[in-house]
Design brief:
Blueprint lengths: L3 E4 L4 E2 L9 E4 L17 H31 L3 E9 L2 H11 L7 E10 L4 H10 L2 E5 L5 H10 L3 E4 L2 H14 L11 E12 L12 E12 L1 E2 L3 E6 L8 E13 L2 E2 L2 E2 L2 E6 L1
Parallel strand pairs: 4-5, 4-6, 6-7
Antiparallel strand pairs: 1-2, 1-3, 8-9, 9-15, 10-14, 11-12, 12-13, 12-15
Helix pairs in contact: 1-3, 2-5, 3-4
């Protein structure tokens, strides 16, 4: 495919067009999208490589977008993208088989590209664009490719033993698992009075404002400790939690007039 750049109505070829210069471009097999960039490359082979990369990137982005849309509907696992290359087709299938046994309830391995042959800079560019981890089985890496992956901050794992490559992928998947938090009830306080203090700068602790609300009450179950998280609720019948009106952290705790770090008796609480 050879492109000709034409200027205005004259129809004469030009070699350079500055900003805001009107031009016509012919020779496309398919129309570019709005926002596509024109790149000048050194050879036709490089131009074809760029075209194939862009087409595959667009295809992968559309596929991931569709899968994420479906995931929001069915509450699927978090998708973790990988780019996989191997030296032979048989090895590629064996690695894929080894990677197919991971559970998919929390995180799910998805491929943005698989193929046979050496890794290329286009692979690194695609992995960077889509946030994918690159896996290579029994491949020789040129130094410039390793440096390209480092500059692009793309995780690159290459191994000559399949189970080592599978273990590397497993580590990536485990790192992508969202952290789980568990809420433990440490104590319950019945608030008996709320009042506001106007504090001078030297009287404030970290997190306190000039006008700080203080809750005074009595512990009815368990204990209360400094730096514990607090949820203040109003209402609630027969042990049911009522309306949540405030959430914060204990930044000052007193047992009567004395500073305390832990108490099961009457106490004074200040939260941010």
């Amino acid at each position: 495919m050879r492109l000709q750049v034409l200027q205005g109505e004259a129809g004469k070829p030009i070699k350079r067009a500055g900003p805001s210069t009107p031009v016509r471009v012919s020779g496309f097999r398919e129309l570019p999208r709005a926002g596509d960039e024109f790149l000048v490359v050194g050879s036709e082979a490089r131009a074809r490589e760029v075209c194939e990369y862009r087409k595959e990137r667009r295809h992968v982005q559309d596929s991931l977008r569709q899968r994420r849309s479906v995931g929001r509907t069915r509450k699927s696992a978090k998708l973790v993208p990988f780019l996989l290359k191997a030296d032979t087709q048989g090895a590629l299938e064996a690695v894929q088989q080894g990677l197919s046994h991971f559970p998919k309830d929390v995180v799910e391995l998805t491929y943005v590209r698989t193929g046979v042959g050496p890794l290329s800079e286009a692979d690194i560019e695609l992995a960077k664009e889509l946030g994918a981890t690159v896996l290579g089985y029994n491949l020789k890496l040129a130094n410039k490719l390793t440096l390209a992956a480092e500059r692009a901050e793309v995780a690159l794992h290459t191994h000559k033993i399949i189970y080592e490559l599978v273990d590397a992928a497993k580590d990536v998947l485990e790192a992508a698992i969202p952290p789980r938090s568990e809420e433990l009830l440490r104590g319950v306080l019945e608030v008996q009075e709320v009042f506001e203090l106007t504090l001078k700068t030297r009287e404030r602790k970290e997190g306190m404002k000039k006008r700080t609300h203080v809750a005074g009450g009595k512990v009815t179950r368990g204990e209360v400790a400094m730096n514990a998280l607090v949820r203040v609720t109003r209402g609630g019948v027969d042990g049911e939690e009522g309306e949540v009106i405030h959430e914060g952290k204990v930044i000052s705790l007193r047992h009567f007039k004395e500073e305390a770090r832990l108490t099961t008796d009457c106490w004074l609480l200040t939260t941010c």
